[in-house]
Amino acid sequence: MGAMIMALVVRYGLVMLFMPFSALDKIFNFEGALKQCGQIFKPKALAAIILLCGLGIEVFCTIGVVTGVADRACALILAGYCAATAVLYKQFWAQGDFWANPDGKGRTLFWDFLKNLSLGAGFLLIVVGTDGQGLAPFLAHPLASSHPYGVHP
C-alpha cells in the first residue's frame, strides 16, 4: 500500500504544474494566455488552436500519467510539450544579455529553460521505466499502462 501511495505522490508531483495550475490559468486567463501564445503563433486563430491543444495536453495527459491509463504515451507527449515550451517560450539565447548581466532576463530564462527540460526528462522516466527494459514495453504497446500502482488486468 505504501508503494502505491508513493507512486501516486511522485506522479502527481510531476504533473501538478500542469494540472491544476497551468490548465486553470489558461481557462481563467484565456485572453492573457492567448496574447502570450500570439507572440509566437500568428494569426490569432492559430494561436487559439495551439493554446487549446496545450490545454488538452495539460488536462488529458496529466490525468493519464496520474491514473496510469496510457501513461507512457501521455508521458511522452508531456515530455515533448515540455521541450517545445522550453524552445518556444524560454529563449534565453535571444535576450542578448546572457553573458553580460548575471541578473538579466537571459539568465532567468536559462534556468526556466533547464527546468522545462528537466521536467520533460522526468516524464521520459515513465516512458522508458526504471526496470532496464528501456523503450521495448512502450514500443510493443504504446497505449498500455505501465501499471504504476501494481494493479494488472
Automatic annotation (TrEMBL):
It comes from Sphingomonas chungangi. Pfam families: DoxX (PF07681). Keywords: Membrane, Transmembrane, Transmembrane helix. The chain crosses the membrane at residues 47-66, 73-93, 113-130. It is a multi-pass membrane protein. It comes from the Bacteria. It is found in: Membrane. InterPro entries: DoxX. The lineage of its organism: Bacteria, Pseudomonadati, Pseudomonadota, Alphaproteobacteria, Sphingomonadales. One of its GO terms (cellular component) is membrane. This is DoxX family membrane protein. The keyword Transcription regulation does not apply. The keyword Membrane applies.
